[in-house]
Amino acid sequence: MKFICRLSDKLQIFGAYLSSFLFMALTILIMTEIVLRSFFNVSTMIADEYSGYFYLASVFLGLGYTFKEDGHIRINVLTSKFSKRGKRYIDIFAGSITLVLLIFIFYRSILLVHDSYSFDMVSETVSETPIYLTQLAMPLGLFLFCLALLSFILRRITNDR
Question: Domains in the chain: how many in total?
């Protein structure tokens, strides 16, 4: 069980670094587009499209790390009235329901990527980027999020945190 938690923590950090890298790439791409348009009156023709792809990937890859660091919004109005033990049980219950829902969303995202690949879908822009490549960040990010949630539940069960 500790192995899963340690592996999850390392994968969450990897996801956060990858998310940060993509966000920096997004910033560089937009700055490049601004400079090219302002000084040279030309465009990359892909800045709008790829900035959206980078943003989507950055958000999804950062979900697990954000959860691990308690960065997601939590409503504590009800749980603030419970004892420490009661909060632990609520965390396990809510985490389990959320994990089941996330596993379903993860599964559906895999089907989405598979369909995009099967139908050879490409973007309708100049780049004609294969859509499945841009969608791969969704199942990867959701997988990391599921691992973070599983680690959260296991830690609550073992009263590790």
Answer: 1
Question: Distance between CA 148 and CA 21 in Å, rounded?
Answer: 20
Phi, psi of 136 (to 5 degrees): -60, -25
DSSP string, 14-53: HHHHHHHHHHHHHHHHHHHHHHIIIIIS---S-HHHHHHH
Write out pLDDT tens, residues 113-147: 999 999 999 999 999 999 999 999 999 999 999 99
Question: Tell me, what DSSP letter sits at residue 83?
Answer: -
What one-character DSSP code corresponds to residue 93? H
- Residue of 11, 99, 9, 24 whose CA lies nearest to 57: 24
User: What contacts 42, CB < 8 A, 6 or more positions away?
Assistant: 36
Domain containing residue 122: 2-157
Query: pTM for the whole thing?
Result: 0.92
Residue labelled with tokens 């997004």 = 26
Count other Cβ atoms within 10 Å, centred on residue 66. Answer: 17
Q: How far are the Cα atoms of 29, 54, 62, 120, 152 from residue 16, in angstroms, in the given order?
A: 20, 14, 5, 30, 17
pLDDT tens-digit series, residues 58-76: 999 999 999 999 888 877 7
Q: Provide the sign of the torsion angle of the four alpha carbons 63, 57, 14, 136, taken in this order.
A: positive
